[in-house]
Predict the structure.
Amino acid sequence: MPPQDVAAEQSVLGAMMLSKDAIADVVEDLRIADFYRPAHATIYDAIIEIYGRGEPADAVTVSAELTRTGELARIGGASYLHTLVSLVPTAANAGYYARIVKERAILRRLVEAGTRIVQLGYTGEGDVDDVVDRAQAEVYEVTERRTAEDYLPLRELMDGALTEIEAIANRGGEMVGVPTGFTDLDALTNGLHPGQLVILAARPALGKALALDTPIPTPTGWTTMGDIRPGQSVFDEEGNPTTVVAVSPTWHDRPCYRITFSDGSTIVADEEHEWLTETRASRKSAQAAAVGYNRTRNQRTFAEVRTTGEIARTLRCATKDARLNHSVVNAQALSLPEADLLVPPYTLGVWLGDGTSAAAHFTSADPEIAMFVEAEGIDAPYVGHGSVQALLRRLGVLGDKHIPQSYLRASEDQRRALLAGLLDTDGTVTATGNIQFTSTSRVLVDGVYELVVSLGYRCSISGKRVKGRTEATSIAYNLNFTTDDEVFRLPRKALLHKERRQGKVSQRLRSRFITRVERVASVPVMCIQVSNDSHLYLAGRSMIPTHNSTLALDVARSASIRHGLTSVIFSLEMGRNEILMRLLSAEAQVALHHMRSGNMSDNDWTKLAGKMGTVSEAPLFIDDSPNLTMMEIRAKCRRLKQRHDLRLVVVDYLQLMNSGKRVESRQQEVSEFSRSLKLLAKELDVPVIAVSQLNRGPEQRTDKR
């Protein structure tokens, strides 16, 4: 017979039905599985259920509860409950009876574990170390039990609290808790502390915000951050349209900064807005890997996501010349379908550059330009005088030279043809190989600026006062950009551009430096969530990529990968492979959709190879088991604490957890999860982060309540 004591079990249950104080003494030690007889386990469960509701538990109420659940006949009827009450020597000894039951249960589990260990030894499957580890795990599961602490008066707690305060002071500002990776939050909280339950409650990917008047490019033109609504399309960092799936409320009184870039463009963002920036270290690492300097084969330092506040603090390098530190990679050319245009794009570019504003003709000393125009089906140099002039009038450019929005959102080939027409007529090549376009029309120059930026080039505009016919034409606007691409069709200019760019360094053409980050008065800000995997979208007239992040995953990444602290993620939303791919994408700065589609470049593979070792060695555990219950999470966390010194738990996300029981409402069930997670944090002495999605209903209301 297995170790057991039926009399002790009967006495425990009888005492619990005689006294609620006995229930309080017993519940700390006993679990349902500790009872040998199934009928006793069922009765214990019913008593605990009644006690948890705050109702009295006696033979009559327990009988009613078992009748409700259909278990009364299975345990021996109401008469057996009265028998249990009559068998109790005294209810005051309930705690002693409970310890007897608990000890017999541990002995039974020890017998079961011993049997399994014997089987492991005889079968001998796998590595010996693995067999020993599994045997140890069996013993650990037997001995694993929560140690309940009694209450203490303040005078007994004071010495321990003062000792902890002194220890913190002696660390000299060193981080005490688990670092989140968010500098300002860590400075405020000194990290996440053991025993804390942190609820991350937000609409997905919200928290990093731009000023409401920030221009946002769209496939049909422009909008502003304040006017964006879910369902609209914006652009990702590769120029592809991406859908806005969520919009935050408008936030006020946040610390705000104006970020100025080397091309003169500016964006106002809050302190926590994130940017994917290269630093001097990552640029030097990339250069060393490219040329094999000092036997370097792989890039070791890469671009990282940093907040506005972090960039402000590390704006310049700690070098003698204090050179600029951060740079942001340019977006790629906007990817759009071919448009049905009234006037061929090259022809329109030629007319905008050298045409007569009030008529459909142009002048040029280069016969090749006329040939290019005629190749598009237009008679040059009068460009059709009649019919084309009518088309120019329909476009609204006759007498008002500007680039229509339909051309600025045409296909890449059409936009390049338009730019070639403008540059063949009015573009010049400087002595250093830069490309310039000059006009006294600010409207036209702004259109050319947008055209150049939409093709993935960094561009700047400067003004110079000249003698014009009117005040409006007395400023010459000079647009300047640099590229090694062929942007001219006119052979003499294309050749000159190629010659003057010969031998020039082109590495820095693909990015813009951050030259200044200055605190400004707080303005209303908001943020969006987009549907693409990289969570990047373009902002500002210069179409600069900005970054969103998955906060809970970032905290676990910071704890395990950056600081070597053991973390576990219980993901009820994403699979383990998806989480790992997101981690690799974030660490190696490789676009997630490149990994998923298989379109990875050699540079992507190099970045990935450079980070795989670091990520694989990180003490981060991922559990994507479906329908996880709180009991399973608690058991797994206990094992990790025992084996790997667990320091952080992340549950993503709260609403997807399942209790496995019938409950009155989902709200009560989620509340119970929160309570259980807090108890888990205290029991294991680790911070627990529970991710929760807020109701999107208020977003649809006018008052946002």
